[in-house]
Each structure stands twice: as C-alpha cells, then as structure tokens.
User: Fold this.
Amino acid sequence: MRWTGRPPLLVILGATATGKTGLALQLAERLNGEIVGADSRQIYRGMDIGTAKPDAEQRARVAHHLIDIADPDENPGLAVIQNLANAAIADIQRRGRLPLLVGGTGQYLSAIVEGWRIPEVPPNESLRRELENFALSHGREALHRRLADVDPVTAARTHPNNLRRLVRSLEVWHETGQAISELQQRHPPPWSVLHVGLQLERSDLYARADRRLEAMIEAGFVNEVRLLLEAGYSRDLPSMSGLGYRQLTAHLLDGLPLPEAIDAAKAATHDFIRRQLTWFRGHHADIRWLDAASLETDTIATDVQRWLAQI
RNA sequence: GCCAGGGUAGCUCAGCUGGUAGAGUACCUCACUGAAAAUGAGGGUGUCCCCGGUUCGAGUCCGGGCCCUGGCA
Assistant:
C-alpha cells in the first residue's frame, strides 16, 4: 500500500457490544491491516471472557496490538498506553499496512488521535494514599483548598468530591512544581484519520449488551473471576473494577446472589454505554456512523479504499 | 357470588387530621489529560385505575364501576 500524503489511521469506535471486533477483523483482512486495541480491559492477561477479547483464532488471522500487555495487578496508565499505541501505529504504517485503532475506551482513543501531551508524572502510590488519608481526616473540601492554592485553574473545574482527580492534580504539582492545567496540551500526530462509528438505538444497545453478558456467564465468566481471585488478585485492583468483574466478585466474596449480581452488572453496563456515548458526542465530531444491525462489510471496505486513494 | 386487602414513577413501594406527590432502583444528561469498564456532578421522567359527588381545593372523604391478590362458597 502506498499513500502520498499523511499516513492513514482507521478508527473504529462505538459503544460496547456493537460488533467492533468483528467488523475490524473483516476490514483488516480485506485492507491488509493490523488491529491496535483501544480497550482499557483487554490489555489484561487472564481477563478474556468478561472483556470479550478476540480469541486465539481471530488473533491468528489478524495481528493485534495492545492486547494482553499487562497482568491484572499492573496499572500501565494512559501515557504508557499512548506510547505503545503510537509505536504500534507508526510501525504498521512503516511496513506499508493499514492500522485500525479499535475500541470503546474514549479516553484512549482521544489521547491517541488528538495527541494529548500527558504530564510525565507516573502514578506515585504512596503519595496517593497520603493524599487520600488527608481527605479522610480533613475532608475533601480541605484537599480541594490545597489544590486551589497551587493550581486554581484545575481546582475551579474539579468538583471537591472527585477525589481521584484532586489527588492526580496534586500529585503532578508535588512532582513537578507545575500546575497540571499548564502541562496539558495537544499535539495531534501527522496522520490522516477516518472515524467509523457503530450505532444502534439505545434499547437495542442495552438488549445486545444484556444478551452478551448472559452468554459470558454461560461461557464461564464466574469461573474466570474465581480463578483471578484465587490467583491472589485483590478486588480493589483497577483491573478488577470492570463491568461484571466487580459484581461477580461481590457474588463470590460477599454472597450476593448470582441473579442479582448479573442484574447489577447489566445496569452498570447500561450506565457505561451512556458515558461512552457522551464521550463520543463531545470528542469526535466527524464520525461516520454506521447502523450496527445491518453492516455491509464489502461496502464499508470499498468506502475505506476510496478514502485511502484520495489522501 | 360473598368477605378482606390492594390499584401512586419503567419496577418495588411511602404518602400524617384534604393544600396538584416522594424513597430505593431503573432511566436521562453532563464533566473527564498517567485508575477511564475508573471517578465525579446534575435531572423526576407521573391521566395518583375510571366516572361522578362533597369542598375554595381530592392521591387522601363519599357513591358507582373496572381490574389484581387472598379467604369463604
């Protein structure tokens, strides 16, 4: 494949359970492509069923990147993900192939495509605990005032209850002496990007997600969570906070009846779908939306080829 | 058929001696720069079963009807 201008990136996004994985596979096969995951849960080894991770057969058909890159007790963080994705995309382009950035994690998609400059301050767990303890004893308002003293801009746009954001902002200040608001910039990479989004009516999105969860349960989701817990992965790890994982942990450890855990997981998934859609609305204005219920892969592939020819 | 209880938000239900309604959950909206499937903020979305009556005013009181549940036949 050759292109005269900027190297191409095809982005496939959409709410969870819309069929991104299947479409990406078919397009990658037709268009000489490789898939770069933009999914914050498929990065974890051992979390397969509940994350709807592409299986071995699918990954043998098309090369996948950014999947199974961490153990469940690790927490790579946005900057690491962004660097890995950038490297993978550049490498695929260099080899004359088409990178497909595929996933539903809005923050990852935006950070990669918009080129967020992320403050180079890795998470400092002990500092985070210290700040959280301060909030516990003095109140979140007090922590918010501490941030307002050093970084009024960020303080003004962070709700005092959002402890996680407060802690991160103070962490950046503590490590760099600079306000996080001044370190946040954007440097979009020199790519030609086409956004394709998979869309469905809200009630269909919920129904599909519910059905998929039921299928996951039948495929052994509960046992997957049990194995993770038995392997020593604590319930308060970020990786264990995912949809289904959290609720099934409550089932296994707290005796929450399975049907109730499943219902709670469904509701959490609906909530997540809403937040995904909010993100896509706000961050990606130029998405080419497709009806996920009637995908015509050949037509889409032709459209993408036409796009590739004119960039 | 008779007796008793009940029909209020999508669901389960609260609503004191009459002043056009609330809770949990579901649902909807929004923010988001190294935890993001995370975290946080906001929102009531309603023929109070129907018809009539009393009253300045009815979810609430009265009459009639319809439906649901249990018991007795």
